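Hello forum,

I keep getting stuck at the same step: I have a sequence, I want structure tokens, and every attempt I make locally crashes halfway through. Rather than fight my setup again tonight, could one of you with a working pipeline run this one for me? It's a single chain of 372 residues.
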Amino acid sequence: MAAPDSVSIVSQVSFRLKVQNVSQLKEVTSPKFVIQDIPWYVRLTKTVEEAEEFLAIYLCCENKDKSPEWTQPAAASFKLLPFNGNSTAKEYHLEPNVFDRIMTSSGCSSICWADLFDAANHYVKNDAIDLEVSITVADPNDEYKSDSIFDAIDNCCDSGRVGTFRLTVNNIENLMAIRSSQFMLRDVPWYLTVFKHSSHLGLRLDARDSSDEIICNVSASVKISSLNEQFQRVQKIEAKQVQRKDGLVMERLITWDDLMRPQNGHIDNGSVTLEIEINAERRLGVATPCARKRQISNESAQIKMPRMECPICNDAIEIHNISFIPCGHTFCTPCITNSVRDRKACPIVACSAKVQPRQVKLLRLPIVSNSE
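Reply #2:
Ran it on my machine without issues. Output:
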């Protein structure tokens, strides 16, 4: 095994890691290795998910640069080595990720605890396991590294529920992982990461939030463009409860071979373009600026008002907080005020009529009294 805290000027380091007393494992870390001037290591923990136990392995960095501009793509793989010479080592790959001043630990790769201790697999001997670990860090000075162009096709305002975005990755052949610029949905900052994972192209949606709590339910649809329409591909993922620490992952959008095959038409001058539609449901446990809780007893209610929903945030609109624009569409006042200020157009995609902020008018409805 390589010496602890050794310095490396290369982009990849491989080492053997022996974990003792694995049956009693809570958490252990490997020695640190300086790659591209940054200390990197792996962290192993025992986790429990839905009553099942796992060995989880994370890639971590100790970056001293806390500037918002600093980012570093990196990936890791490891082999679980059997102690006899006849069994086959099991290989795992962590999703490549883009590390920054906040994201200092990647998503994990998990080994089922029962499989680890299954005597037929020969992974545990004298309560110890052997791992062969490889850490790869992208060279920030590589003139041929991938870069990206990110555009919002339809994203009416920061409080909106649905957004459609276009992400073009250049120099796709050299891709490890690349991140979009930040965008807002449901008043939460998000970003997209495109990565090459083993033999597939993958996509990850992460929320940049201050806690690890569940943020909201999210679903997404991804279209990979093609010069040949018959090879255009669309993949959807159903709604998932997203937390900052796990994100929403489509790790197998398309095989790398299918992506790079010239007759499929996905590559145009070394670039590939993804069109991503994201649907973020209402933030769980958080009232939006337009939300209001009302309790009206059936005994006292003389009339039932129809429920009106804002097309932007999908919350019920309060009757004293409705605004309209010249095209006739109505919204809750905070949403349409913010949207028109940013876009100068109607947020309804099929309309998109030009609107100036001064043209947003408060709709005054008659007050209905329930008293006799």
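The first helix runs from residue 113 to 116. If your local run keeps crashing, start a new thread with the error log.
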